[in-house]
Design brief:
This protein has 158 residues and is of the alpha+beta class. The protein contains 6 helices and 4 strands; from the N terminus they run H-H-H-H-H-E-E-E-H-E. Helices cover 53% and strands 15% of the residues. The chain has a 4-stranded antiparallel sheet with strand order 3-2-1-4, with helices on one face. Strand 2 and strand 3 form a beta hairpin. The N and C termini lie far apart (60 Å). The relative contact order is 0.13.
């Protein structure tokens, strides 16, 4: 019987969310699931190119943009919530790509950032999202430990 209590709590929490947040939570869960497969099969450049084409803000003219910091933080929270509840684990790249795409679809000007560092003789990489030069889905102090990579998504080479 006690096993049903957490599920009821999650349903109650879901019901408290506004409809637009429920929709974003479901989109985030579906996107995170798809990204786990797509990144392994198609690679980052191809996946980024497809997401970039499908999330151009101009394509969503007429919709109210999620431009306030409060709305951006709500999206950050909902992507993290979706990631925690998936049966399979996600990486910072999955979560950052999903957040970047969901925000861009809603008219938010943001960038996907990749960085690397060497720690204890091993290579470590990290991904995060920035809006107006501010890190939105991670600790800015942690991000400073990484050297930003200069990568050019498919079709955007200098």
């Amino acid at each position: 019987m006690s096993e049903g209590v957490p599920a009821r709590g999650r349903i109650a929490l879901l019901r408290q969310l506004p409809w637009r947040h429920r929709l974003l939570l479901l989109q985030a869960a579906a996107l995170l699931t798809a990204l786990r497969v797509l990144l392994r099969t198609a690679g980052l450049r191809r996946v980024h190119a497809v997401l970039n084409r499908s999330a151009r803000p101009a394509a969503f003219a007429g919709r109210r943009a999620w431009s306030s910091p409060r709305e951006v933080q709500a999206a950050v929270h909902l992507v993290a919530m979706a990631a925690r509840r998936l049966p399979a684990s996600t990486t910072c790249l999955h979560r950052s790509l999903a957040l970047w795409w969901l925000l861009r679809r809603r008219g938010v000007d943001c960038e996907l950032r990749l960085g690397a560092r060497r720690q204890d003789e091993r290579f470590d990489a990290h991904a995060w999202v920035e809006c107006d030069g501010e890190v939105v889905n991670d600790d800015p102090h942690k991000v400073r430990e990484y050297v930003p990579l200069s990568w050019h998504p498919a079709g955007q080479r200098p």
